[in-house]
Amino acid sequence: MSFQIKTFEEYQDAYQRSVKDPEQFWGEIADNFFWKRKWTNVLSWNFKEPDIKWFEGGKVNITENCLDRHIYQYGDKPAIIWEPNDPTEAHRILSYKQLLNKVEQFSTVLKNNNIRKGDRVCIYLPMVPELVIAVLACARIGAIHSVVFGGFSAQSIADRINDATCKLVITADGGFRGTKVLELKSIVDDALMQCQSVEKVIVLTRSRTPIAMLKGRDVWWEDEINKVETQGNPPCPAEEMDAEDTLFILYTSGSTGKPKGVVHTTGGYMVYTGYTFANTFQYAPGDVYFCTADIGWITGHSYIVYGPLSQGATSLMFEGVPTFPDAGRFWDIVEKYKVNILYTAPTAIRSLMAFGDSFVEGKDLSSLRVLGSVGEPINEEAWNWYNEKIGKGKCPIVDTWWQTENGGHLITSIAGVTPQLPGYALLPLPGVQPCLMDENGNEIEGNDVSGNLCIKFPWPGMLRTTWGDHERCKQTYFSTYADKYFTGDGCYRSPEGYYRITGRVDDVLNVSGHRIGTAEVENAINMHSDVVESAIVGYPHAVKGQGIYAYVIAHHHIDAEKTRQDILQTVTRIIGAIAKPDIIQFVDELPKTRSGKIMRRILRKVAEDDLSSLGDTSTLQDPSVVDAIIQGAEKIRQA
Questions:
Q1: How does pLDDT run across 3-60, given as a tens digit for each residue?
Q2: d(CA 636, CA 639)
Q3: Predicted pLDDT of residue 519
């Protein structure tokens, strides 16, 4: 890998070159990929609109870079290793040759079901190899995939299908997650009652859950594959895509109730995920790489599928949960497959810490060379446990900071190359130009300073728009600070120039590494017939990092416990279990200014049990409301 950085001096040199002449720098990186036709212009950009184009005029297909180009050298090498939910079920290994064959087969299935370049396909599958196959098949024929995490509700799926006007849904009869069976097809059926654009549903057999199959609309995955096999498995050439053609849409929560469809395009995303994967983790040929994320999130897109496969890596995917059948499951997998690189979330680490060290003891983790963390800043206690118990003090830990909108890592240490420091994302990767801004729009210079984190120059993996609503993209990311991409995160830059992410500065929570908009949860709670009004804030949670604290005004004479359970059920039905509040406090009033604005800062302080810095409450409509809320919170804590 000619673009892999090997020493700190090389990092410094690459970073300086990437800032001094970004076009030459990224042009050289892009030359490591296979292009059907080379670009005519590396970059044109304008953050005001925003209008960003990378590798203009270039023609490329990302699946040829993930599959076809590796066949000669790595054809028999494992591309995907799949570990099932139940450890007694057989695992599966797909070589690069086998994966290409299956992707071509399913590409033909998509074409047989009237899917063409530019059509949108919603994928709602469990973590099985067919999910990777479906994603790559869409990309191969130029269809735009929209993967929806298997924990989302029917309403959430319907919202995403309708926003993207998807023509096809790919799902399974059901899926497994620990001891649970997820009834995926019946959830899709409920969603499709609201969706006019869907013409076909392809259903994979996984759980053998009884389901309804609608004649003319629903077809079985296996039957469709059989049709292709009887045709003699004709090859499916990769569609020629423009570098700026849309590759996929991925929905993420914002500070308003409606999820936004982040759009990533083909060329820049391909180059950026491949470059960051190879460098951050210092991937070496032959390594077994295990990312524990779900492909329904950006981490799975970039660092289970596209990044690793573009570099000819062996990518291990896991269907289950870290605590089933017991809290030693991750370490069993590391031992079983001799995993070299492990990439997981602080929530998982904290959860496994809580079970004690006995589940780690006696497990052979000697194959591990690099550890990674993703989704939220990793706290020092979890970092130390991960370092000592899992890495045995010999594995560098890369604490990667990035977002759905970024496509790949932006600020992180590089394994064994740059320094590492618990709690710090550390340094920007080459091509990434961070800056800290104050509330007045001025850049904060120097070190040992805090501010709002922005990026002042484009990088190839960044979002181009939000699907169907470019103005929303502009307002959300590019309007807060002139000519800057605003991340929504606060950040501290240390005296040494190292970056530490301090949390969201907007109305978005980071729960178990997943972004959840407060407005989205409030809207769901307010759908309950007994609820008058609600307000959501985050608070420190020992496992999740941030928990969801709901203040709810309900109609009088309710049964509090029953209403609490009903509210949890309502949120689960409208968004999914991922957004359920951890604490619900019923209140008579919310603290509001005289203009009617809810003072979330006060609610946040009460939820955090930090009453020393409540600030001036005399400007509220009714200051006595705060005392009543504090007393209620105290009762909850005592209970």
A1: 999 999 999 999 999 999 999 999 999 999 999 999 999 999 999 999 999 999 999 9
A2: 5
A3: 84
| Nearest-angstrom CA–CA distance, 306 and 324 | 28
Backbone angles phi, psi at 218, to 5 degrees: -100, 130
How is residue 495 annotated by DSSP? T
Confidence bin at 614 (pLDDT 50/70/90): confident
Give 142-168 pLDDT, tens digit per residue: 999 999 999 899 999 999 999 999 999
397-399 β-sheet, strand order: 92-95, 78-83, 314-318, 288-291, 341-344, 370-373, 397-399
DSSP state, residue 593: B
> Does residue 594 or residue 632 have the better pLDDT?
632
Instruction: Give the Cα separation of 435 and 442 in Å (integer).
Output: 10
Distance CA 419, CA 426 (A): 8
CB 267 within 8 A of CB 60: yes
**Cα separation of 247 and 269, whole Å?**
9
- Give counts: helices (H), strands (E), the chain: 20, 31
Which 8-state DSSP code applies to residue 478? I
Predicted TM-score of the model (pTM): 0.92
Q: How far apart are CA 327 and CA 319, in angstroms?
A: 15
Q: How far is CA 441 from CA 285, 436, 458, 473, 497, in A?
A: 46, 10, 19, 19, 21
Q: 418: closest CA among 307, 273, 282?
A: 282
Kindly give, in sequence order, each residue whose CB lies less than 8 Å from that of residue 371, ignoring residues fewer than 6 positions away: 341, 342, 343, 386, 387, 390, 391, 395, 396, 397, 398
E strand intervals along 253-363: 260-265, 288-291, 314-318, 341-344
What is the reported pLDDT for 306?
98
CA-closest candidate to residue 274, choices 301, 245, 295: 301
CA distance 438 to 454: 10
Task: Give the C-alpha separation, 421 to 498, whole Å.
Answer: 9
The two tokens of residue 482 are 């002139």
Euclidean distance between CA atoms 318 and 446, whole angstroms: 43
* Nearest-angstrom CA–CA distance, 33 and 393: 36
CA distance 272 to 407: 7
DSSP strand pairing (397-399 vs 370-373): parallel
Max CA pair span of the chain: 78
Name every residue whose Cβ is closer than 8 Å to that of residue 570 and which is 6 or more positions away in sequence.
524, 525, 527, 528
Distance between CA atoms of residues 236 and 606, nearest Å: 59
Q: What is the pLDDT of residue 456?
A: 97
Instruction: Burial-class residue 561 by CB neighbours within 10 Å (0-12, 13-18, 19+).
Output: exposed
Given a contact cutoff of 8 angstroms between Cβ atoms, the answer to whether 592 and 599 are in contact is yes
Show the 3-state SS of 563-581: HHHHHHHHHHHHCEHHHCC
Mean pLDDT of the chain: 95
The size of the chain, in residues, is: 639
Check: CB of residue 588 under 8 Å from CB of residue 552.
Answer: no
- Which fold is adopted by the domain 511-638? GMP Synthetase; Chain A, domain 3 (3.30.300)
The confidence band for 258, taking pLDDT boundaries of 50, 70 and 90, is confident
Provide the residue ranges of all domains of the chain, joining segments of one domain with +. 511-638
Using pLDDT thresholds of 50, 70 and 90, give the confidence band for residue 255.
low
Q: Are strands 485-493 and 51-56 parallel, antiparallel or unpaired?
A: unpaired
Using alpha carbons only, give the angle 347, 352, 353 rounded to the nearest 5 degrees: 95
- DSSP, res 598: B
Would the pLDDT of 594 be above 80? Answer: no
